[in-house]
Design a protein that fits this description.
The structure is a homodimer of 101-residue chains. By secondary structure, chain A is of the alpha+beta class. Chain A has five helices and three strands; from the N terminus they run H-H-E-H-E-E-H-H. Chain A has a three-stranded antiparallel β-sheet. In chain A, strand 2 and strand 3 form a beta hairpin. At the A-B interface, helix 1 and helix 5 of A face helix 1 and helix 5 of B. Chain B binds a DNA duplex (30 and 30 nucleotides) through helix 3.
Chain lengths: 101, 101
Amino acid sequence: MEPHEPDLTVVPVTSVLAALADDVRLQIVRALAEGGEAACGSLDFGVSKATRSHHLKVLREAGLTRTRAAGTSRLVRLRRDEVDKLYPGLLDAVLSQRPPA
Amino acid sequence: MEPHEPDLTVVPVTSVLAALADDVRLQIVRALAEGGEAACGSLDFGVSKATRSHHLKVLREAGLTRTRAAGTSRLVRLRRDEVDKLYPGLLDAVLSQRPPA
DNA sequence: GGCGTTGTTCGATCATTGTCGAACAAGGGT
DNA sequence: ACCCTTGTTCGACAATGATCGAACAACGCC
């Protein structure tokens, strides 16, 4: 089945904010913002792969990320330009708070 | 009891985002952004006063609003300067999406 | 003092969601 | 063909949170 990747403009703000309002997902977004494209497996933040898959789905369906298959892996990247265009300052603001030591 | 109004700097980003990730609370924030200070009672968006009180508490404890007593009412205002200082662009981005007709 | 107005708090209910293990699906390599 | 790796999906469960009515508290006014 096609991965559901809606355009940001059709996603309600509350869904975008809710997607970012989780610590694990925020760590994922930070990693993607710094490291560019990343394999799902490399985004391990202390949760099971089922949970990770769930979080990536939430981010994807909020229009924040894009996923493409690459062999047996899947590469995820942040849709930064589109987010910055529709919500200028949002990602910068959210990412500005330094991750906990 | 003192109203719990923490400084924004001690509130985790996820809490700020979660506070904004609700439709009723967004309507409240929009109203405050446009109309300045407002009485709680004037912020009726189709929910009971118990629910409204709950939402105002969430916003207050996220460091987004400040409340002061004024006679039998309570006046709420958005702490815009502080939010803009710590998260530049966040409120603008969030408020940019036009409220539904 | 008594009453109406304005909010808060409490307890209950119901929906949402974060989490996991297990089962399944798709690829690549040997 | 087999297996291992990588992800997704499926229940299940626990925690959180949105919502309400009712009870309570504080204030102003008559």
